[in-house]
Structure formats: structure tokens, C-alpha cells
Amino acid sequence: MTERLEGLVRERVGGDPVCLFAYDLDRLTDHVRAITATLPRRCRMFYAMKANSADPLLRALAPLVAGFEIASGGELDKARAVGADVPVIFGGPAKTPAEIEQALKQGVQRLHVESLLELHRVSAAATRLGTTAEVLLRVNLSGPFPTATLAMAGKPTQFGIDEQDLPGCVSAARELPGVRLVGFHLHSLSNNLSADAHLELLAHYGRTVSQWEREFGLRCEVINVGGGIGVDYARLDRQFDWPAFARRLPSVLAEFPAHVREIDFECGRYLVAECGSYAVEVLDVKRNHGVQYALVRGGTHQFRLPSSWQHSHPFTVVPVDRWESTAPRPEVSGPVTVVGELCTPKDVLARDVAVERLRAGDVLVFSHAGAYGWEISHHDFLSHPHPEHVFF
Ligand SMILES: *Cc1c(COP(=O)(O)O)cnc(C)c1O
Fold it and tell me: Where is the Orn/DAP/Arg decarboxylase 2 N-terminal domain (predicted)?
């Protein structure tokens, strides 16, 4: 934890129970600059906005990335609030005709099409507006996949076009008057921690696209290889090895057709997770049936990430000596389970984590909370006040 963050937490202690998200924008820009600086020729890094669409984050990221990947009309509004010219690409599994029209009117660069019906909708909207939409077909690959990625890719999902249906979609894309097929979109995994596995997956994408080009007599201009680079929440000292990944990427990209001019990444988690922290005050500490609990202000309604991934989220303790109550101050040491203020046993942020000492009134700071934290949470369940959001 930085001194600045601890200072902020200590400033807040003594008022309403501490409950805040803090984002370090300097750390964000350093991290993202280091990533984009090592991208090889042809590669561009878009930011997948669904990981965190807070306006100050978007403004810090806009000059560093190739643009934003959006998945709704609301996200397009947020992108356009940052700048009328920020490049935007539009994905998402169930776009409405109105969103498609909004995207075309507001200069979205490319649409990632997820079904045959959607392809028809895009063409109809573009024709109505007197334009042609550049599209990538998002494909859910059949496999077989390289062994390293087996656990993650090629499962039935609601996303993309089944590879078996690709011939029909490619013909339709060529015949429909309002669309121009410029390539394919392949995003098949989430939170991948292994650079080796990611490289293998990309090599597989390259071979697959080359084969489709031969099969369909196509020349792709753009391939989108998705996001899915992960954050290791269990071992913060052992993160995705981006430098090794970037070093070996050029040889893997040799598997992609030489005429492809642009290879797009659209990462969310890996770009913004580490710049965010979630600080919550311990309201109570108790033992129940042999388990020690710390009950905090806040919970999964504000930070659903650990519950959605079923992990114990890493935290550090900010010891607070001040204790103004005349009541005895409860404390625990050893394994503690951190829970929120919701009336459901699922409101767990971390389970059986060893602490030296934890008292009511101390503050816990959860790190790597910048992606899919506040954004994916059900904020108004139980109607507690929302946390403060601070941007350094
Ligand atoms: C969620 C999503 C991303 C970003 O995924 P991360 O795991 O956050 O990198 C990229 N592309 C698509 C299509 C997505 O749905």
C-alpha cells in the first residue's frame, strides 16, 4: 500500500465508517505505458471499458491506448464524453437496433458481430444511414485447442458465432449491402495467468484465421485477439509475465497472414486492476461456531469480484489505535473470514486468512480492486450508502 493511500485512509478514520475506492492514476499510466511501449508492429491495445468505466480512468487511459472497446450504448456515451474522436470498437452479445444505429451515427470504427441476425441488423441500419459498416465476425472456435489453453477456450457460451456456422455468415457478410467484412474477432478466455498459454492461443488464432482465408478466399485486414490477460489475486508477487510475452509475441504473430494490417488487443482487467484499492472499516469482530469473523462496512454489493471468482481477495490491515467507545474493543488473531454488512452468508470477501491482530475499528485495504470491483456489483441491495470514489 502506498503512503498516499494510507494517509487518505487515516484522514477518513473517525468520521463515518471508512468505505472507499481509491484509484492511483499515476500507477495506471505507468503500467499501461509500459505495456503499450513493448507492443510489436501491427498490434494495438484497446481498453475494454466494462472492466471499469469511471470517467477519470477513461480520461487517463485515452491518450495511452488505441481506443475503447465498448459493449453498450451507455458505454458509447461514456466514451464520447471523453472525446468525440476517441476511436471506439463495439462488441457485446446482444446489441439492440437502436444501439447499432447510435454506433454508426457516432463514428464507431468497427462492430464485432455475434450472430447472423445481428449481421442483418447492422447491414440494415447502415443502409438506412447511407453508410457501410466495417465488421469483424466474432467466432466461438470449435477446437481442438492447444493443451495449455484447453481449460479455458471452446466451451458453449452465448458469445459469438459457432465456428460450424461460419461459412453461412461469411457469405452473408459478403452479400449484404451495408457491411464490409474486414476480419475476425476471437476472445475465448478470461483471467489467463500464463504468458506461454496466451502465446499458444494466439498462435492457434493465427493458424485458424489463415485456414479460413484459404477456405473462404478472403483477405483479412484486422484480427481482434480479445482480452483475457489475468491478474493473480492469490499470489500478488507472481503476475502475468508481460515482458516475456511481448518478447515472444513477434514470432507468434508470424503465424498471422502478412497482409493483416492490424492486430487488436482489447484488455480490461490487466490494464486497470492494480491501480484500484477498496478500503473498508471493520465494524465488528466475533467468533461463531469456531470461525473468526471480521464484519466490515461495505461488502460484495460494492465489491463482488471475490464472490464472482470464488476467491479470497488479498488485503492488508491498517491498524487504527483510536477507539473512543467505552465498550471493550474486540480483536482476533489467526485465521479470519472477512464478510460484509449484507444479510446473506454469501457476502464473503476473504476466507480464513491469517492475521496477526485485527480489531474492530481497524481498516482493511483490498488491493487490485480496479477491475470488475464496483462495476459488477449490485450496489443497492440492502440500500447501504455507496462508497466514496477517490482518484489520485
Ligand atoms: C470482457 C471482455 C474483454 C475484456 O476482458 P478482460 O478479461 O478484462 O481483459 C474483451 N473483449 C470482450 C469481447 C469481452 O467480453
Answer: 26-273
Residue by residue, DSSP assigns 336-353 as: EEEE-SSSSTT-EEEEEE
Using CA atoms, how far apart are residues 280 and 49, in angstroms rounded to an integer?
A: 25
Number of structural domains (the chain) is 2
Question: Rounded to whole angstroms, what are the CA distances from 272 to 27, 215, 301?
Answer: 9, 39, 20
Between the CA of 272 and the centroid of ligand 1 the distance, in Å, is 12
Q: What is the DSSP letter of 386?
A: P
C-alpha cell belonging to residue 135: 465488421
Tens digits of residue pLDDT in 2-38: 899 999 999 999 999 999 999 999 999 999 999 999 9
91 lies in the same domain as 149: yes
| Residue where a domain terminates, one of 233, 267, 301 | 267
275 carries an active-site annotation: no
Instruction: Give Cα separations from 20 to 5, 36, 187, 350, 363 (angstroms).
Output: 11, 30, 32, 18, 11
User: Is 42 inside any structural domain?
Assistant: no
CB-count exposure of residue 328 (10 Å: 0-12, 13-18, 19+): exposed
CATH code, 124: 3.20.20.10
Residue 50 lies in a domain: no
User: What is the CB < 6 Å shell around ligand 1?
Assistant: 48, 50-51, 69, 91, 187, 190, 226-229, 266-270
Residue 371 and residue 51: Cα distance in Å, rounded? 5
CA distance 64 to 272: 13
Q: Is the pTM of this model over 0.90?
A: yes
Domain annotation covers residue 198: yes
Q: What are 188-229's pLDDT values in tens digits?
A: 888 899 999 999 999 999 999 999 999 999 999 999 999 999
Q: What is the pLDDT of residues 38-64, one digit of tens each?
A: 999 999 999 999 999 999 999 999 999
Claim to verify: residue 151 and residue 125 sit in the same structural domain: yes
Instruction: Answer yes or no: do 310 and 204 share one domain.
Output: no
Ligand 1 centre to CA of 138 (Å) is 13
